[in-house]
């Protein structure tokens, strides 16, 4: 891959709601979305997994879900908690439970690992996630040297203020212009309808419009950037490994 640039466009939160599921499906079928990360705890997860089984061009990773925080009145407030992030034993048990649920829903191993609101970046979740990634032989977001991570296609500031210019067509082109040599993962959060009770809602619909814009494929081709699957990094465990 020396000298070449490759882009994985990965949707987080697949399975969290019907609107998110539809957005992921449309972004894959009509746009530049190549892969998705499945949240197995949510009611729409079965629908998402079924789509993944039928649509073999979409490989699925596991989006570990241990809680969610929202920014309110100058501070981050817990919206829901699955387990205490201070309890390594509870974290390990829950992470492995979610991996088992992923296998049951999809019938295969995940092609990559990441987490909701990046909780795997800190201890003790990081150690558990790194161990799991090693065991199943897949990349862990931001922790695997083979894949550079970018999260700048995101329509809010760190404090939750809306930032629509960051999820515009112009912003996507700037991202393409600044891709480095090798493999880069770009995360996104598309939805067809804003049906989640969360701080990141309407931005998801705008993301979908950009991901499906036909001009983006032209911009990729003009720069010689190839869309890539996680399966091409991890081998035959991904049925989409040769789909491009």
- What is the CATH class designation? Alpha Beta
Order of helices and strands: EHEHEEEHEHEHEHHEH
How many structural domains?
A: 1
What would CATH call the architecture? Alpha-Beta Barrel
Helix content: 25-40%
* Share of β-strand residues: 15-25%
User: Helical segment tally?
Assistant: 8
| CATH fold-level label | TIM Barrel
Report on this structure.
The chain is α/β, with parallel strands linked by helices and 244 residues long. Strand 2, helix 2 and strand 3 (59-64) form a beta-alpha-beta unit. Strands 1, 2, 3, 6, 7, 8 and 9 form a seven-stranded parallel beta sheet that branches. It is built from eight helices and nine strands. The chain has one domain (5-234): Glycoside hydrolase/deacetylase (TIM Barrel), CATH 3.20.20.370.
List keywords for this structure.
seven-stranded parallel sheet; 244 residues; 20% strand; TIM Barrel
